[in-house]
Structure formats: C-alpha cells, structure tokens
Write a structure and sequence with these properties.
The protein has a two-stranded antiparallel sheet with strand order 1-2. It has about 100 residues and is mainly alpha-helical. It has one domain (about 5-95). The model has no long low-confidence stretch (mean pLDDT about 90). The protein is built from 4 helices and 2 strands; from the N terminus they run H-H-H-E-E-H. The chain starts with a helix and ends with a helix. Zinc ion binds near residues 45, 48 and 71.
Amino acid sequence: MKHFFLYAILAPLALASIVAMSWPIIVSIFRREGVWGINAWRTKCPECGHPFPIIRWPANERQALWGGGTCARCGTEADKWGNRILKQPVEADSEST
Ligand SMILES: [Zn+2]
C-alpha cells in the first residue's frame, strides 16, 4: 500500500481535471463546429464543393486565429469544419456606413 494517496486520489483527480479542461475541444471535435479542436481532414466549400487548399493563406483575423478559408471559386467563407460563416449583423452595418 505504498503511494496509496498518489494512485487512489491524485491520479484520478489529475485525469479528471485534464478531461474537464479539454472538454470544449472534445465537444468541438465531436460536433464538428465551433472554434476549438483540430480538423485533420480536408474540407470542401459548403456552397460549391470546391476543396480548400491544404496550405492556406488567412484572409482575415478570424481565419488566422481559428482556421477556415475563403473559397477560391465562389468566395464563400467557411470555418475549419467546412461550415458556412454567416455574416454578423454588426459587420453588415459597418460595411453599409
Ligand atoms: Zn465555393
């Protein structure tokens, strides 16, 4: 019964805290949406199906931070999961003024 405290209490606690801290990443990967997680597969444009390039050049801050790209064929913006990015109403207002 050497190191009982370590194996019975500390190790499960450490494991549980690791899972709890990475929970947003796990959820993002399984739901295939959101900003967290890593998508290892190539995505296609949600509008025309044109594949995004493997080596991408971010077109804006959001793409540089969270991934995704702009379709070279139709200009549709998508996140790293291939979901269409909907224009925010705030962005639309600032563009019109
Ligand atoms: Zn497209």
